[in-house]
């Protein structure tokens, strides 16, 4: 509710008008049995045709007016609910953009997708129903009871007993199903994860003939969701039969009592019809109320899940200093060199349970240096470079860019100064130019071609229909792996960054292109500080300095020649790729 109320306040006109119109409709509905009673007792019983016609016309008028009020109420309720849904989705999207990488890792992409789609839809339809029914249904239930009292007190006492009993049943079902709905949504998350994994990895699944296993796993998850839905359905399915049985028992009691009272001349037939009518109205409204409660229960469970994301405060505080100014103000050392990146005794742990991904790393990269980072899989190479644009915060120590702790720099200016090409080439639907504009919004075609040339992508882009306007499909599936990588490198170069990080981003390139790429980068921007992460010794061997990582520790630092002479880990990596005899 905490997240819903402020949004609903913005649409208070619709949120107030919808229940009000429903209330007027309910009022008209409550008058109908009274008119029917008069029509029977005064019109039909006394054979007054004119009165019958007059009252029938009044009934028709009430029906038409009720319909009009109902449609207007539906309109306002739907409008408020849709606006709320749209705004919730927007807020979630904005929050997801704000959260740190660790927080995103903690939630996981799949649950975030379910929360932004299915959960928001549930909340939206819950709110729609609440606006229409939360005043109307109780009003009819209690109004009908009061009307019954005005007709006949002993008959009305039956209402007074039936309604709380039914209320208790509904309340019990509500309490029992609320936690179960949360479990159902959790199972939906699992299905979502499984679906996404399967769709994105379909080629690998087929290549490894894992279709049957995957089908099996999916079936298990689906069965778990089904079982959970059946459990909750069994309990909530009791709602209608139980309430019907109770109301019908009350109707039986009512007929029994009233038959005697009609015989005794205390009640007229029309009044009995009105009482039965009120009982039926109560039945219909209680069923609606029960369904409303089920829907609201579900919507509340979903709104809690949405609120859980919205209430998270980003654990990464933005700094206040501008990176460009810090860089301009930096004083060169005695050798005339400026520090670009410095790791001061840095350790990183992704979460409390796991071990350290990086332990006590210290090194300095000077402006214009090319730093190679090499190590086995999982040795911490990506973790190390991810700390420079502050994708994660260090657990201990300090990462400084241009001499200043990255935590003191504004994230925007820090990331604007860094071009990063990630291991997995992510491109977006749109033209090649659209993708390159991510690096520089107002770039012209000369800038595009310059970046493409350095990234060794010019030749293949020229062959594509429409060249810069060539349309990339989802995940750029109409490009090869190497073409995608070169385009992501060009996109990073568009920024003209001070620091360029290539995180294993030349792995799909052949050795000649990889070498040409490194030379072109060096020639195009002499002052650029370049980090090249790779498992290939050939990609890093010409770096000014190579950092060797092993199990999160910095086990070597030096030039290729120094490391080849003294460093066991580097020797192992190098000779595994270039055997000595070769
Ligand atoms: N987001 C994350 N959450 C938790 N643990 C992580 C995360 N990213 C990496 N790790 C862990 O940190 C360690 C170092 O991973 P990292 O990706 O930095 O290695 P790497 O040297 O780049 O490996 P590779 O060459 O295979 O890409 C690994 O044990 C990995 O499981």
From TrEMBL:
Main location: membrane
SMART domains listed in its UniProt record: AAA (SM00382)
Keyword Zinc: no
Molecular function GO terms recorded: ABC-type oligopeptide transporter activity; ATP binding; ATP hydrolysis activity
Keyword field: ATP-binding, Cell membrane, Membrane, Nucleotide-binding, Transmembrane, Transmembrane helix, Transport
PROSITE patterns (UniProt xref): ABC_TM1F (PS50929), ABC_TRANSPORTER_1 (PS00211), ABC_TRANSPORTER_2 (PS50893)
Subcellular location: Cell membrane
Membrane topology: Multi-pass membrane protein
Domain ABC transmembrane type-1 as annotated: residue spans: 16-298
GO cellular component labels: plasma membrane
Residue ranges crossing the lipid bilayer per the database entry: 20-40, 52-77, 133-151, 157-181, 238-256, 262-279
InterPro entries: AAA+_ATPase, ABC1_TM_dom, ABC1_TM_sf, ABC_transporter-like_ATP-bd, ABC_transporter-like_CS, P-loop_NTPase, Type_1_exporter
Start and end residues of each ABC transporter domain: 341-576
Name the record gives this protein: ABC transporter domain-containing protein
Protein's organism: Stomatobaculum longum
């Amino acid at each position: 509710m905490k997240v819903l109320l402020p949004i609903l306040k913005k649409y208070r006109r619709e949120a107030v008008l919808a229940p009000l119109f429903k209330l007027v409709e309910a009022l008209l509905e409550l008058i109908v049995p009274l008119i029917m009673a008069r029509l029977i007792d005064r019109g039909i019983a006394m054979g007054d045709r004119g009165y019958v016609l007059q009252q029938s016309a009044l009934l028709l008028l009430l029906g038409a007016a009720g319909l009009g009020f109902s449609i207007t109420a539906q309109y306002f309720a739907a409008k408020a609910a849709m606006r709320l849904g749209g705004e919730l989705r927007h807020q979630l999207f904005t929050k997801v953009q704000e959260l740190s990488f660790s927080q995103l890792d903690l939630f996981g992409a799949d649950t975030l997708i379910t929360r932004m789609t299915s959960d928001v839809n549930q909340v939206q339809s819950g709110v729609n129903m609440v606006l229409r029914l939360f005043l109307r249904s109780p009003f009819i239930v209690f109004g009908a009871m009061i009307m019954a009292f005005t007709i006949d007190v002993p008959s009305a006492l039956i209402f007074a007993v039936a309604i709380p009993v039914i209320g208790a049943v509904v309340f019990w079902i509500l309490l029992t199903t609320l936690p179960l709905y949360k479990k159902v949504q959790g199972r939906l998350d699992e299905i979502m994860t499984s679906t996404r994994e399967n769709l994105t990895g379909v080629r690998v699944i087929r290549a490894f003939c894992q279709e049957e296993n995957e089908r099996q796993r999916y079936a298990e998850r689906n069965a778990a969701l089904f079982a959970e839905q059946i459990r909750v359905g069994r309990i909530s399915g009791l709602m209608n039969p139980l309430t019907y049985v109770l109301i019908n028992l009350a109707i039986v009691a009512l007929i029994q009592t009233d038959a005697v009272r009609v015989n005794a001349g205390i009640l007229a037939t029309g009044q009995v019809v009105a009482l039965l009518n009120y009982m039926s109205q109560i039945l219909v409204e209680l069923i609606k109320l029960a369904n409303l409660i089920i829907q609201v229960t579900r919507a509340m469970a979903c709104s809690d899940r949405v609120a859980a994301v919205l209430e998270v405060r980003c654990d990464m505080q933005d700094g206040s200093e501008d990176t460009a100014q810090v860089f301009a103000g930096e004083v060169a050392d005695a050798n005339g060199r400026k520090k670009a990146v410095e790791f001061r005794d840095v350790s990183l742990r992704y979460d409390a349970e796991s071990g350290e991904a990086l332990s006590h790393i210290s090194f300095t990269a000077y402006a214009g240096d090319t730093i190679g980072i090499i190590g086995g899989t999982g040795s911490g190479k990506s973790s190390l470079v991810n700390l420079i644009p502050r994708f994660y915060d260090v657990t201990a120590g300090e990462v400084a860019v241009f001499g200043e702790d990255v935590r003191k720099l504004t994230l925007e200016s820090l990331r604007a100064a860094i071009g990063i090409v990630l291991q997995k080439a992510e491109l977006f639907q749109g033209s090649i130019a659209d993708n390159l504009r991510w690096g520089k919004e107002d770039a012209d075609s000369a800038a595009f071609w310059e970046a493409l040339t350095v990234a060794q992508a010019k030749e293949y882009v020229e062959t594509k229909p429409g060249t810069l306007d060539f349309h990339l499909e989802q995940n750029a599936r109409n490009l090869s792996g190497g073409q995608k990588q070169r385009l992501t490198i060009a996109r990073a170069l568009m920024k003209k960054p001070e620091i360029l990080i290539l995180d294993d981003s030349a792995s799909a390139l052949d050795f000649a292109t990889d070498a040409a790429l490194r030379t072109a980068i060096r020639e195009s921007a002499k002052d650029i500080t370049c980090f090249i992460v790779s498992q290939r010794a050939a990609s890093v061997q010409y770096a000014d300095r190579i950092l060797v990582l092993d199990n999160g520790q910095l086990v070597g630092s030096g030039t290729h020649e120094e490391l080849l002479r003294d460093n066991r880990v580097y020797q192992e990596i190098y000779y595994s790729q270039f055997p000595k005899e070769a």
